[in-house]
From TrEMBL:
Name assigned to this protein: Serine hydroxymethyltransferase
In-chain residues carrying the UniProt-annotated modification N6-(pyridoxal phosphate)lysine: 226
Listed pathway(s): Amino-acid biosynthesis; glycine biosynthesis; glycine from L-serine: step 1/1; One-carbon metabolism; tetrahydrofolate interconversion
Subcellular location: Cytoplasm
Catalysis: reaction(s): (6R)-5,10-methylene-5,6,7,8-tetrahydrofolate + glycine + H2O = (6S)-5,6,7,8-tetrahydrofolate + L-serine
Tagged with keyword Transferase: yes
Keywords: Amino-acid biosynthesis, Cytoplasm, Methyltransferase, One-carbon metabolism, Pyridoxal phosphate, Transferase
Length: 411
């Protein structure tokens, strides 16, 4: 058996380079994380060789004895961890999982209602460029322009006017706690299903630092690779037996063929890791770190959307006249701080340019960074933004960042 570097030197080298990049950079992308070695071992296992269309003990192929066991394990662990009656772990990622959930609850052409992209919703929450805006009649709610918090007057008004089949809550770029019960009230007032997409905050919910929508929303979807720190995958959950059957049928055979059994195995491992006391501590530290980072950005006169954060992420708004998100993302990246440019409420620029950046602490917290490092990183970010045209200064800061990251190994 030849190793990767014997078979394909080029790809082996690219992996080594990516390993080095991940080690040397400070990763502040809120949707990314470092998986454990155990998760990656399961992901790289022989389960990738198997076909297993169907569900545990009801397959269309033979040879699924161990796949059945591993998928059952993932399902049982998901149910226990989130305190829910049903879980489907076959969704290939967050977007296909949302598609499956919508098609289980509604027909093509029905109205769905979600947060607009510029206000912090995900593409799959009704954006016209995604399946969600093409297959469904999508209505978008926004945030209040003053408080930059969800505008429930608008949510209720739009729901009354458009009578959506599904209301989607849970976001991509919203730094505050999501009030599930308020969404439930609106959904009930118009007879809509409530879908909570907890892709970003699943790990925080498990750690008890964000409330859970289980028991409030009809269906809960999540990715497994953000704060939950697993492989790229998804879980769809519900307590409603009828919906559970529809969800299973919509995932397979409705939308997918064979599940990725190696991913299922890695999800099972990640869920075991997420059920430990140390994961709870990790989730608590993510939020502590985010609050300190936010406070040091604010102290450096950077404006945070909604004034701060209660979660793992924050948005900096440079305003119409300030630098663009693209420009700042590039300056930070040159120094070894990785963030993503992001639209902000009242955005005036194009999505590829933007007036803001989005930052989050799940990855740096996995590396063991704490409040002291957040203070340093907050000050360094402000320094880079202030000196973004001074190559010499940026080089000096890049040196400081390299020094900092060598002290915090990645798993
Ligand atoms: C809230 C939310 N839902 C769904 C997704 C989609 O996940 P994926 O990129 O795995 O398709 C994302 C991804 O960022 C997200 O933030």
């Amino acid at each position: 058996m030849k190793s990767l570097k014997d078979v394909d030197k080029k790809v082996a080298e690219l992996i080594k380079k990516e390993e080095k990049r991940q080690r040397q950079d400070i990763n502040l992308i809120p949707s990314e994380n470092y998986t454990s070695r155990a998760v990656r071992e399961a992901l790289g296992s022989v389960f990738t060789n198997k076909y297993s269309e169907g569900y545990p003990f009801k397959r269309y192929y033979a040879g699924n004895k161990f796949v059945d066991e591993v998928e059952s394990l993932a399902i049982e662990r998901a149910k226990k961890l989130f305190g829910v009656g049903f879980a489907n772990v076959q969704g290939l990622s967050g977007s296909p999982a949302n598609m499956a959930a919508y098609l289980a609850l509604a027909e093509v052409g029905d109205t769905i209602m979600g947060m607009s992209l510029v206000s912090g919703g995900h593409l799959t929450h009704g954006s016209p460029v995604s399946f969600s805006g093409k297959l469904f009649n999508a209505v978008s709610y926004t945030v209040d322009p003053k408080t930059e918090l969800i505008d429930f007057n608008e949510v209720a008004k739009l729901a009354k006017k458009h009578r959506p089949k599904i209301i989607v809550c849970g976001f991509t770029a919203y730094p505050r706690i999501v009030p599930w019960k308020k969404f439930r009230e609106v959904a009930d007032s118009v007879g809509a299903y409530l879908l909570a997409d907890i892709a970003h905050i699943a790990g925080l919910i498990v750690a008890g630092v964000h409330t859970s929508p289980v028991g409030v929303a009809d269906v809960v979807t999540t990715t497994t690779h953000k704060t939950l720190r697993g492989p790229r995958g998804a879980i769809i959950m519900t307590n409603n037996e009828e919906l559970a059957q529809k969800i299973d049928k919509t995932v397979f055979p409705g939308l997918q063929g064979g599940p990725h059994d190696n991913t299922t195995a890695a999800i099972a491992v990640a869920l075991k890791e997420a059920s430990t006391a140390s994961f709870k501590k990790y989730g608590v530290q993510i939020v502590k770190n985010a609050k300190v980072l936010a406070s040091f950005l604010s102290k450096n006169n950077l404006r945070l959307v909604s004034g701060g954060t209660d979660t793992h992420l924050m948005l900096v708004d440079f305003g119409e006249k300030g630098p663009t998100g693209k420009e700042v993302q590039e300056a930070l990246n040159r120094c070894g701080i990785v963030v993503n440019k992001n639209t902000v409420p009242r955005e005036t620029r194009k999505p590829f340019v933007t007036s803001g950046i989005r930052l989050g602490t799940p990855a740096v917290t996995t590396r063991g960074m704490k409040e002291k490092e957040m203070e340093k990183i907050g000050n360094l970010i402000a320094d880079i933004i202030g000196n973004r045209a001074q190559e010499k200064k940026l080089k000096e800061i890049a040196g400081q960042i390299k020094l900092l990251t060598t002290r915090f190994p990645v798993p």
